[in-house]
Amino acid sequence: MAKVVLEKVYKSFPPRKGESVASAANTEMGQHRPTVERSRDTNVLRRINLTVADGEFMVLVGPSGCGKSTLMRLIAGLEPMTAGNIWVGDRLVNGLPPKARDIAMVFQNYALYPHMSVYDNIAFGLRRRSTRENNKSSNVSQMAENLLVGVTKKLPTRLRYLSDKERDVDERVTSVAQLLEIDTLLQRLPKQLSGGQRQRVSLGRAIARNPQVFLMDEPLSNLDAKLRTETRAQIVKLQRQLGTTTIYVTHDQTEAMTMGDRIAILDRGQLQQVAPPLELYNRPVNRFVAEFIGSPRMNFIPVEFHAPLLITNGEFRLTLPEYWGSVMQKYDGRTILLGIRPEHLILSVPANKNLPLQVELVENLGNETYLGAKLTDVNFQQTLLANHTVQVRVPPDKSVRLGEQLWFSLTPEKIYFFDPDTELAIYPKTSPSLPFENKH
Ligand SMILES: Nc1ncnc2c1ncn2[C@@H]1O[C@H](COP(=O)(O)OP(=O)(O)OP(=O)(O)O)[C@@H](O)[C@H]1O
Ligand SMILES: [Mg+2]
Fold it and tell me: ∠ CA(374), CA(377), CA(383), 5° rounding?
């Protein structure tokens, strides 16, 4: 097994016809650019520094087009880097071809060989590898063995001659198939399998090679919800058993939060934060991470800050806990962004310190209900809050009518603030409770 180290990795593609090159200067962390400009961007990855520890399960997340697959392809050696270094274990692999890197990659569209049985699909990489090894020391006994294998190939299984090499392959295929619970399917062709079974064969092929590193690029995206949950658990269990360093790309919030030891968040080719799942949820470094982690996403509400501890907007006035004091003073009289997650807005009574919301959407999921609501108070309408949609969670037994006005209190220790210019999160130096004490 091995750690993977990425050092100042850059990747750019030549500009496509009719497209201009966006400069790296206006793409610094936290600055949001319009989507149109993003699509022209040819600097796909910028200054990626990441260390994945030996045996670690690292999840890589980010919006579509942010460079996740490109990064995986660079590590696998399928795409040349523009600049930077990649180490696998102690080896600098920059110039090495994919097959010399000892990395197995599972792609989203798991291409199995359609004319080969499940057994042969899993055995394929192993056979190729041992052929290469044997070629180096080709000798007469090897030729004799190959002859015996060839002559007995058409005989019933128990009469066939199995070379040492083939015996090793057989042991490996059988144990991997048992591990993935596909041992009863070994003689089938891929077209005779369900999507989930095919997915497991594809995983089996990667696992059988016993590589130093697994790269998995959205390997479950073709599965239905139930199979996805099952296979997710299976992958985590397998990874723990094998202890193979793994980088796993996903779009799925639940996968990201539950599978990884740590999550790396990528936006527009730059790493935003790398941390254990709960640290990302509790202590995001900037607005992007705060918005990306958590479902439904965090609400952002512009408010004015008045020293020493007051935030206002229209009729809404809330005094913050004391620990906000020193870090907030420089924002006196300025508008800043308040962040609050839907689960931290609590159904309450009319009061200035509470948010008045008019319900526009009710989504009852059975175990919980989410509301989409608008700030409706006359005074709010004249402020920055006008037309601002806020999502809140209410207990499932609470009956809510469309158009109804409800008041919500903000759980004080769950309030976030973001700098209006940099969009970096502002944290108090000390605080009595979560989320701010959840530091590693
Ligand atoms: N060969 C290429 N030539 C030019 N641009 C490319 C090439 N491959 C990828 N890109 C661009 O690089 C950016 C990142 O692509 P990538 O496939 O890494 O995104 P992703 O994060 O994997 O997205 P998704 O979640 O949709 O799979 C995209 O803007 C894409 O258009
Ligand atoms: Mg991709």
Answer: 85
